Amino acid sequence: MLRISYTLVVFSFLSHTRIPLSFSLPASSSFLPLPLSYSPTPTHTPNIHTSLLFLPPPSPSLSQLMRDLGARELMFTSDGQYRISESLRMKPHRDVVHTLNYQNAHDNPLQRLKREAPHHPLMVMEFWTGWFDHWGEKHLERNISPEDFSLELRAILAEGASVNLYMFHGGTNFGFMNGGNWGEGEERGRTYRSTVSSYDYDAPLSEWGSVTKKYLELRNLLVETVPESLSLNPLPPLPLSVPTADYGEIKMTLYISLLSTLQYVPEPHTSGTPIPMEFLPLNKWSGQGFGYILYRTFVPSSASSLTIHGLKDYGLVMLDLKPIREVGYFDKVTISLPSPSSQGLPSRQLDILVENGGRVNFGHPLAVRKGISGSVVVDGVTQANWKIYSFEFKNSFIQNIDRGGVWLRTPAKEDSGPALFKGSFTIDGTPKDTFIDMQGWNKGVVFVNGANLGRYWMKGPPGSLYVPAPLLSQGINKNHVQHCSSAVPVECPSHIIKNMENSPIETTR
């Protein structure tokens, strides 16, 4: 029997925890891909996505410009069900097809589209099968039940329309690739909402490929409605379940302070004022796109008040390496600085670590700079002389600190600021899909063999991260947890690897 050893590394942005980690596996599952759209239109079609910015639909000049530049494919808009008339009033190029997006139809939008654009083929370009989560909000706040999913889909097919399921298969925003949104209603444009790493979406196939009730409803509906001439009936039997495993508990035995790894990141950029990460002279002058950015300066020992303008998205303020305050997305915030622990020193080191929580991919504005885009004022005086460090958490960074960093034994309690934690576990036999349980940890990201699984945050709703079997290879595998420390030490949990049937879907708020 094959025995495989693995090491886990966790980066912690907020308060360190000290309990072991654990794995939680998905339940036995299976999937059967099915063709869901039988429209005769081309496979690859450019989308003039008018709903992305909530802006007016495209003008004739936009579609004509694309034609003039040589685009010959079918073009289409992708509009909300309440924007049909507005989109058609713009009168884009005659061969731009208008399609719809919705989850629950109101006032028969397909009939309205048919009346206003009788010569267009009917299609629901995005039929939302579920919804995604934001950190700190209710799980599946906007969703559709399997029964209503089947009814809405049946109504679409009854109109003779084509349909594209968004999403058919749930997925994962691995690494730092999750998006974000603005608050809705009166909050739109003011409240930043970061999307979680899991994009399970309550889709017909789950994040890890498991058949759901929606999948079975869809399968039954296709048996009833798809013409026999398409040779889909009878459908083949469901395949065997996706293999999963329970790998138990992982003790996070080693840690290293993030601020002691500065020799493994690019040379700091010196600036008179803070600048956002996109303006750093990195990556062939394209700037920093993801990860964390550290702003370092020195303030008078007598300093008592700190005001930060334009911090995005989450920050940790530290004085002399000690965390003093966690701060969220804001235009301006003022905090009090504690008195120095020892007298006589002329200055104290001020560090502000800022996380890019994910880029807004819907709504306005989109081009939001990450880090600190404004000034930092200390006791009424604008602070100058900054050193700015980039923590992109590339694979090379994880490898270099794993090999050359000075790792210490994880203490029972720690209040030393952001840190990385490392532990190991062993697998007997062929690796299988699993989930890693992050309950008890505060905020950060997890790496397995250098692969960034995504973010965790005690706010929930997800309490675990998906670990696909291909990330677990033969030999020694390394797992790191990045943890971002606050000023309040808590007990450090272990990671538990267990079957997804027992895995948390929501954490306690």
Automatic annotation (TrEMBL):
Signal peptide limits: none
Q: Does the keyword Metal-binding apply?
A: no
Superkingdom, taxonomy of origin: Eukaryota
Q: Which GO molecular function annotation, any one, does this entry have? A: hydrolase activity, hydrolyzing O-glycosyl compounds
InterPro entries reported in the protein's UniProt record: BetaGal1-like_ABD1, BetaGal_gal-bd, Galactose-bd-like_sf, GH, Gly_Hdrlase_35_cat, Glycoside_Hdrlase_35
Q: Where in the numbering of this chain does the Beta-galactosidase 1-like first all-beta domain appear?
A: 287-391
Keywords annotated in UniProt: Glycosidase, Hydrolase
Q: Name one Pfam family in it.
A: BetaGal_gal-bd
Start and end residues of each Glycoside hydrolase 35 catalytic domain? 70-222
Q: Does the keyword Hydrolase apply?
A: yes
Q: Into which family does the record put it?
A: Belongs to the glycosyl hydrolase 35 family.
What is the protein's name according to its record?
Answer: Beta-galactosidase-1-like protein 2
